[in-house]
What we know:
Layout: E1 6-10, H1 14-24, E2 29-33, H2 38-44, E3 48-54, H3 60-72, E4 77-81, H4 84-89, E5 98-99, H5 106-118, H6 123-134, E6 140-145, E7 153-154, H7 156-162, H8 166-172, H9 180-195, E8 200-208, E9 214-225, E10 232-240, H10 242-250, H11 255-262, E11 268-272, E12 280-283, H12 287-291, H13 295-298, H14 306-309, H15 315-328, E13 332-339, E14 345-356, E15 362-371, H16 373-387, E16 388-389, E17 394-395, H17 397-409, E18 416-421, H18 428-432, H19 434-449, E19 456-462, E20 465-470, H20 476-497, E21 501-507, H21 515-526, E22 536-540, H22 543-564, E23 572-581, E24 587-598, E25 602-604, H23 606-615, H24 619-639, E26 646-650, H25 653-656, H26 661-672, E27 679-684, H27 692-704, E28 708-714, H28 721-726, E29 731-734, H29 751-761, E30 765-768, H30 774-783, E31 787-788, H31 799-812
Parallel strand pairs: 1-2, 1-3, 3-4, 4-5, 21-22, 24-26, 26-27, 27-28, 28-29, 29-30, 30-31
Antiparallel strand pairs: 6-7, 6-10, 8-9, 9-10, 11-12, 11-15, 13-14, 14-15, 16-17, 18-20, 18-21, 19-20, 23-24, 23-31, 24-25
Helix pairs in contact: 1-5, 3-6, 22-24, 24-26
Amino acid sequence: MEKNGQILVVSNNFNTKNAVKTALENDFILFFSTPSEMFNEVEKHPELCGVIFELKDENIQSVEQFSRLYLKYPRLKLLVLASKEFYESIDEEARFGFWCMETSTAADLLNKIYELKEYPLSTIEKISLVYAAFERAPFGIMIIPNDNLELALFNRKNDEVLGYTGEEYKKLGLNKETHPDDLQRVAEIEKQAKLLGENSFNVTKRVIKKDGNIVWVEQFISIIKLEKYEGFSRIVISWDVTKQKAVEDTLAESDRARATLLENLPGMAYRSLNDKNWTMEFVSDGALALTGYRPEELIDNKTVSYYDLIVRVHRPRIRQAFDEATKSKKQFRQEYEIVTRNGTKKWVSETAKPVFDKKGNLLFYEGIITDINHMKKIEKQLKHFQQYDQKLNLPNREYLIDKIQAKLDSKNYSGTIILVNLKESQRLYRSHGYQYMELLTASLVTKLKTIETSRITLHYAEEDLFVFYAKYQMTREEIKKFYAELKSAIGHTISREQIRSGIGVTFLHKSISIAEVYLQRARIASEFIDDENALISIHIYNDIMDQKVKREEHLRQELIAISYEPGNEHKLRLMFQPIINLQTGKVRGFEALARFTSDKYGPIAPSEFIPIVENNRLIIAFGKKIINLAVSFAKELLATGIHDCGIAINISVLQLLDPNFAQDLFARIESAGVPPEMIMIEMTESIFSTNYEQLSEALAEIKDYGIDTAIDDFGTGFSSLARIERLNFNTVKMDRVFVTPINAENAEQGIAQDIINICKKFNIQSLAEGIETKEQYDALKGLGCEFGQGYYMSRPLEVDAAIEYIKNAKRKK
Length: 813
């Protein structure tokens, strides 16, 4: 008989597995797993159509496993087997996907499976399953994005613990339930945690409920920064410790008063001797729930000593805490693990103090030990949120830094860091949008994961930066082989998207003991470029790179000062290269070329300082300085009686898309009294990676004002003359790579001729850059090119020389 699909049954309960098997084995292929092995089984059986998950208690671990199952495999249909109490506690309208076997037959279960198999379970319904499960959590939960209570989520237990419903709490305000006497102390605890760089902390405080009752509440608070987005989420987990607090406060009272409280005591109260086994003289009834042993089995070490229940690794620390408390005669508190009767480990919190006689001799220890296992599990979950990027499911920078730092602190300097720098992919945001980039990043991460090994692991350092960390010192040959695998994994995508990817390598060394430095070095190496044409390259960090970075940082600081601080204007000036009408020989105008002189390094080439300006987002402020100088030169030309000479100013795409750019440009032109016709703006082909509508709107405003526009370095990018014509550019400047090969023999065979002819077709002016010989000049003139510039006509000139140049040209007329 043909089966109807594959189902995985997840349960630790033998009876449950048998019951499901009896009901379904004739109709479905069944696999069985425990929650801990569940994900391995899902991977083994890709044809699964659904999962039956037993969730018959309120254990946070079970809820966590169930939630991870939904999040990791959204394609699977889910059926949750719940206890009768659990099932009946869920609102009827939210019971879809839950099943109670205690009140139903095997035949009913089979019918339910067929119903779910055919029903297209929606994302909302799946989220409802997870939400219903978390509503059973035995502690209060608040999730507050950016401390904005209007966006906060609350579970039902939170209403009970704090005494306010979610809506009431939103109106009350964050921490407004705190007793006034505790407000400052709670604020100080959070402040201290921030100063120490801690993302999570505990507070114990009094809460004034809506009905006026005052209770003690312990809270575990975690502040989680959101990757890729600005902001954070505050997660607050609260539980009532009023009874525990009352017990702690009364430990100093008489034995008679303590005995009255012990019946309702959460956890285990005790009195022990100061011997090697901490022999128990008294143990409360809470011992059974805490350890699995009855009080009489622990007293006098009858069955086992409590000391032997403490996990061995914690014993020295606990012994030291007892010794220090004895010396200081103060109370102490410790958290550690014990092994319960059934062999499972459990986290506990112990608060105790030594008791002395009148002569100061130690008599015994008294204390209380409580179960904090559920809180430790929550801490583990929150730690995962803190140490992993949730979208990419990769360990993050914080996790990597901690791992490397721990290794360095142990004097182990064996390790290799390989950083993959994909920062250039950010330019695709403008042309392709956010969703495309999300998919592209996910695809690249999937490919990078394929070259992970047990000794080389992948981490997410920050947006578009990924780090492979090898636990050992890789040889040059191993790095070469790894690089080949990396290129094989992502090379096709890099080539298709045309994004430069730098790979930086550095090694741990005993001379450097700070983990962050190694990531900085790897990034420096990844940004080193020795071949402009290579899309993907690898470099191992060395001191020359460090010197380059120091030079770049010094220049960056000087350029910041030029852009924003008065008194640095002398470092920046413009030179002006004449633009000649090739057909008439007359001067059409000048291109304004920025020149920067460093106090430390002297004159700096534009090819070096312009990228620094652009990469550090100084271009808006720096560009205004350039515009001021260019407009000032135009004003000087007017003062000498020259009105028909234009000034071409180079503009970046960031300037063009600044919403204030056009109006600011117009204001500077009008302030100088310069007619708009004397100004032209030039842009490189990189603007075509920008959204077309944004580009069209920005250019239209400029052209309507009377300013001509030109495309610079045409032919080296991906634009077309058709697009240029639609955007109504006035001039196309051919890149010098098309001019250099021109000579008398091949003038009519080059690409330059094609560009000039198409410009004529679209009624766009053509301008050739880099004319260095008379032969090139004559050939371009013969091809019908309208304008040109280059060393053959004139090198860039200082202001006075430029004015004299055009005066001389006017006289020759």
